Structure formats: C-alpha cells, structure tokens
Amino acid sequence: MDKGWIKLHRSIQEHWLFQEKRTFSKFEAWVDMIMMANHKNNKFLLGNELIEVKRGSFITSELKLMDRWNWSKTKVRNFLNLLESESMIIKVPDSKKTTIKIVKYELYQSDETIEKPEKDQQKTIEEPEKNHGGTSKELRKDTNKNEKNVKNDKNIYINIVEYLNQKANKNFKYTTKKTQSLINTRLKEKFAIDDFIKVIDIKCSQWLGTDMEKYLRPETLFGNKFEGYLNENIHQGKQQQQYQNKQYNQPKKTKFHNFEQRTDKYSEDALESIVERKREEHLRKLREKKREEYHEYRPKI
C-alpha cells in the first residue's frame, strides 16, 4: 500500500470537507502548500509592484497561514523553519511578503510523473509471467533501459541544479552535458536526490562569503569528493557566528549595566561598595539638612 500515487486536483480546496473550520495537522499544511504553489510561471500586482512568481512557488505571509491553518504565529514560523531545515522548501521573506518555493515541485507535479506511473504499473503486471524464464541477457537489457530512464529524467536535473542556483545565487544550466553526467554517475552509485540537496546545503554553509565560494559549482560539488562532502557537517552561517561572537565578547550584565557612565572597568563588588558609600553620603547630607532646618525654625523662648 505504500506504492503508487493519486491525483489530487486543486478544486478539492472548494469541497465542503476541505473548507471545514479546523486546526490543520502538519501533513495537511504541507499538502496545502503544494496545492498553493503555482503550476506555471505567473505575475501579479502587489501594491504598485509587479511580482513574478515562478512555477513551484507562491506568495504568502505568516498571518495568512496562521488564519488558513488556525495556528499560532510561533507554530507557523517553527513549521516553516522545520521544512526549510529538511530542504523541503526555500523561504524568502521581505518587508511586504514571504515567497515560498517547494524544492521538489517538479517531482510532485511533473506532467511526466502523471503519465509514467500508469505505464510502469501496467508493465509490472504484465511482465512477471512473460519474463519468468528470461535470460541474463534480457535482464541486463532491462537494467540498461532503467539507467537510460534515469539519464533522460530531466526533472532530476532541474531540481538539483535549480536548488543549487537558489542557495548559492548562481545561474547554472541543468541542460549542460557535464552536469548531467556527474549527476547520473552519482545516481548510479545509489546516491539519492536528498543527498545532492544535503551536499549543497553543507558546502554553501561552509563556502558562501569566503574565497571558496567560486567552487560552489556542479563540477566541484557532484564530482569524486561527493561522498566526503556528504559526511561533513553544516557550519553556522557567517552572520549568525558574528552575532554569537559579539554576544560572547560583551561584558557580563549586572544590575548596573544600564548606567550611562562606563562601568566595565569596575568589578561588581567595587560597584556595590561605591553605591553603598554614595548612599551613606546622601543620608548624612539629608540628616544635616534636617538638623539645620530644625534649628532655623525652632521657636524662640
């Protein structure tokens, strides 16, 4: 039961069952995002700005998703961050909107994906009896045919190369023969599409903003060092690391940290002593003032 697929038309969103007021599960929210994504490139007017939305992407906001899924803002934000960390979406927020791209949209919605399962299923039903006594030569022929199908599946190239372009801000072509050859080689070695996504994430985290950024390219990432890259760790982003360094280097906050004067050259004990001395001095002056006022206004006998 875990094989095969179903067609789910976007018109399901108009059905009374779908429109029932409820709190969405994470699965429902994920399917809803796939259905919200544009099935072709589109443009729409946002204020006075003409926005182009690519196939597999859609424009939304946290507030809209909160209302649509009946979730809190924190839950929406954590869910989107989770999907992004799993390389399922790419989120690009700005002051007016949030653009969300479904990373593997071509695999979910490709026209080829619609046609191939039916053909493959029929082939699976018919071939066991026909080929039960097949020779090793026939089996080898089938294997070669499967490898050819992998080569010809351009959707795999599109997903991998487009993801690299998004993450590294590049403009590589998925049609380049060298790139396709490298991807095919790794696929023959039993690496999955998710492995390509992970390698891109890892090396972008390490090389973006450094002298190594120029090597964020297919011939480097998908070459002979692919497996080594796959087993490395994602580095913290440069901005996040700078922020943490800044936080680490700041002096420890005390109850005196809001004072306007510079206090970082004193220890907390020294500051306590200064405050106590100032307090005693203030109280002494108050007592002297009260004493003077008493003598000044004391009735004369």
Major β-sheet annotation: 3 strands, antiparallel
Helix content: 55-70%
Mean residue pLDDT:
78
- Individual helix count: 13
Query: Which sequence of SSEs, written as H and E, runs from N to C?
Result: HEEEHHEEHHHHHHHHHH
Shape: elongated
Separation of the first and last Cα atoms? 110 Å
What proportion strand? 5-15%
Strand order of the largest sheet: 3-5-4
Radius of gyration over C-alpha positions, nearest whole angstrom? 32 Å
Question: How many independent structural domains?
Answer: 3
Low-confidence stretches: none
Given helix and strand content, the structural type is mainly alpha
Q: List how many beta strands DSSP finds.
A: 5
Structure commentary:
There is one protein chain. With 301 residues, the chain is mainly alpha-helical. It has three domains: 10-103, Winged helix-like DNA-binding domain superfamily/Winged helix DNA-binding domain (Arc Repressor Mutant, subunit A, Orthogonal Bundle), CATH 1.10.10; 139-240, no CATH class; 254-301. 55% of the residues lie in helices and 8% in strands. It has 13 helices and five strands. The strands form two sheets. A three-stranded antiparallel β-sheet has the order 3-5-4. Strands 1-2 form a two-stranded antiparallel sheet.
List the helices and strands and how they pair.
Blueprint lengths: L25 H11 L5 E5 L2 E5 L3 E4 L1 H8 L3 H13 L3 E5 L4 E5 L2 H5 L1 H20 L5 H17 L1 H15 L8 H12 L4 H15 L10 H4 L4 H5 L7 H12 L18 H30 L4
Antiparallel strand pairs: 1-2, 3-5, 4-5
Helix pairs in contact: 2-3, 7-9
